[in-house]
Amino acid sequence: ALAGCGKKDAAPEPVAEAPAKHESNIVNLTKENLARVTVATEVVTRGNLGMTLKAVGRVSENLNKTAKVTSTLEGRLSKLTADLNDQVKAGDVLGLVQTPELLGKALELKAPIDGVITQRKSTVGELIGKDTEIYTISDPTNLWVLAEIKERDIAAVHVGQETIFSVLAYHAETFRGKVVLLGNRVEAESRTLEVRIEVANADGRLKPGMFADVEIATTALQDVLVISDQALQTLEDEQIVFVALSDTKFEKRVIKIGLEQHGRLQVLEGLKEGERVVTEGSFILKSE
Description:
- There is one protein chain.
- Helix content is 4%, strand content 50%.
- The chain contains two helices and 22 strands.
- It has helices at 31-36, 282-287; strands at 26-28, 41-43, 45-61, 66-70, 75-80, 87-88, 93-98, 107-110, 115-120, 127-128, 133-138, 142-150, 162-167, 175-186, 192-200, 211-228, 233-235, 238-244, 249-254, 256-261, 264-269, 276-278.
- Strands 3-12-15-14-13-16 form a six-stranded antiparallel barrel. It has a four-stranded antiparallel β-sheet with strand order 1-19-18-17. Strands 4-11-9-6 form a four-stranded antiparallel β-sheet, with no helix packed on it.
């Protein structure tokens, strides 16, 4: 023991360092890479999504805001003061009828409501009866879209649901409306039910008679995680997104999605609120 006191302790053998773990889910881009590609991100947020039901329809006058101008007596039209597309007010005199019952005094034809002349069916000098339609007046700022819903889908539609629709004349735009009435009879041949949708038309661009492609929001999901469908990529049999960890570092993340609506996806698994996912440039990251 005494002999060993003057000896130095042997140096411990060096321990080999474990090899760095390969981060197969991480993509690093240099500043030079980022100068050549565009990478845009968006925050994972909570929102609402709904399922939609598609149907065909047609634009129609709102019959609750439409009225006919007729004579209360038989006689001959001696004057008409309005023509198609003229704006009129309730009480405006639109024509005169000469009738023997008034002993030479002309019967005034007055507009029953505010609106626009949408039809003119008579001419000056014409003999008219009590049931003769002379003008149709309608309010063009509020219209209906009458959609045909298939019998199997009737249970999914109810009053108050929001709708969007497009028409051929403005194919790049969508218009909004709300379901206000469901029909009470299924058509025997087509097996469809007519659904009435009320639509604001302040600019007058929608015209009665136009065909419409309608989507009715039938089932809503409240307060769910949503991302843009531009963030989603498919790798083999997995659906993935790239989460931005920094300006140059991105993590591949496998996710599970649910409902999709108008370019937005419900995220069931794989992401948290507040994380940033790559939308533009995700395909580049997948190739890296």
